[in-house]
Amino acid sequence: MNNRATMYKLLVVASAIAIAACSGDKDQPVAVRPAQVQPTMTPQPVVAPAAKPKTATDDDEDDGDSQAGKPAKKDAKKGDKSDNDWVPAEFKTGGARWKDTGVYLDGRPVGFLTWGEIPISLKPVWVRSKITTNIRPNSHDPGWRWGQQRYYRFTDYLKAIGVDVNKVKELHVYGPKFSNSVVATRKDLQSPAAKEFLFRFGGSVGGKAIPKVPEGFAAGNPPDKIAAVMIYIEKEPPKLVTDVGFVLGKDTQFGVPYFGDPIRGGIRVYLDDRLATVIKRQDLDPSKTTKNADGDPTWKLTDFLAAHGVNTSKVAEMWIIRGERRTERLSREEVDAISFSASAQAKGGIVLGEKGIRANALALHTRALKPDELPYITPDDE
Questions:
Q1: Contact assessment for residue 52 and residue 67, using Cβ atoms and an 8 Å cutoff
Q2: pLDDT cut 90: percent of the chain above it
Q3: What number is the average pLDDT over the span 70-78?
Q4: Same structural domain for residues 116 and 232?
Q5: Which of 35, 174, 214, 246 has the fewest C-beta atoms lying within 10 Å of its C-beta?
Q6: Are 92 and 219 part of one and the same domain?
Q7: 105 contact partners, CB below 8 Å, separation of at least 6
Q8: Confidence class of residue 60 from pLDDT cuts 50, 70 and 90?
Q9: CA angle 7, 13, 14 (to 5 degrees)
């Protein structure tokens, strides 16, 4: 009995407390209060989904807009990669603008530093270097041997593109970070040390251009790879400012001085080792087209070149460059007759003739090249 009485009293007290609490809140509306969040100054990373492995070839350019099982998404900037809406790679902005290593003379593009596009007359300088080799089982092989690494002199390159080194005010070798660049004056280029002012390619016969600057030569801080080369003969060269980059007057230069945004993409056309023009989709006149067997619009090559100021009257042959290699030779008669298409299916190049020959660059010559003049690959390049 005592236990029951005690329990009854406790229940009465609890009920009284509950009634009092409810009567105190009867005039307050029911609301959802926001949870208090402790602010933080640490940015939170955004985790992107895993990227689909890319299977395109090295000279293909594909932005990967479509996903497996889903149709390609169309937007205002890229469209659906049709000829009417597709924005070529050369219009991309940001750091990708400097993907192609252009060479500019007083702000005018004269060439690009890729192994497939360097002048025929530019010959390598061979530098002794160690090359990795396989170690035979149970042997004392060192795992390397002496070989040769191919380099090229900047002064030889200037001569090959028709620039007199004695007239150069300055030559600037840009790095990806402009404050890490080299400024070589005329005196530097005329000095004996200029013979050791070299560049090579990361893959020996392909890849990004890499400078080799002798100790004490020129001003600045040598970069680990070359973003662009600027040559000044008539124009006033910008000044290299520590931790800033190049400054012209009071303006910091974020592009090519006296030119603007660097050239990116397109099909470069050379005439006797000098850049003559660049084929870009937006420059192609739709009124000048014919249809090929597949119904794609095509343009006659010589008509395009003439419209862009390229004199082909003395051209003897043309070499097609694809994947940094000279792959096919066309005679003068074939050059006169051939047409090209430049749809998105060309994947960063153009397609020439009925055989559908893909090209990333074209090299016109006013004389027939001899076999020993053509670029060659040695076992040490492999």
A1: yes
A2: 60
A3: 41
A4: yes
A5: 35
A6: yes
A7: 163, 231, 232, 233
A8: very low
A9: 90
| Average pLDDT of the residues of the chain | 80
Tokens of 287: 């009124």
Q: Is 21 part of any domain?
A: no
104 and 220 co-located in one domain: yes
Rounded Cα distance between 311 and 317, Å, is 13
Q: Which of 321, 306, 377 is nearest to 352 (CA)?
A: 321
* pLDDT tens digits, one per residue of 366-375: 999 999 999 9
| Residue 4 forms part of a structural domain | no
| CA distance to 60, 319, 359, per residue, from 322 (Å) | 11, 10, 5
Residues 6+ apart with CB under 8 A from 327: 320, 321
Instruction: Give the CA distances from residue 100 to residues 95, 111, 261, 302, in Å, rounded to whole numbers and listed in that order.
Output: 11, 10, 12, 26
> CA angle 86-90-93, nearest 5°?
100
Q: What sign for the dihedral angle of Cα 35, 37, 43, 45?
A: negative
Kindly report, residue by residue over 124-161, the tens digit of the pLDDT: 999 998 888 899 999 989 998 898 899 999 999 999 99
pTM of structure: 0.73
Gap between the Cα atoms of 248 and 375, Å rounded = 39
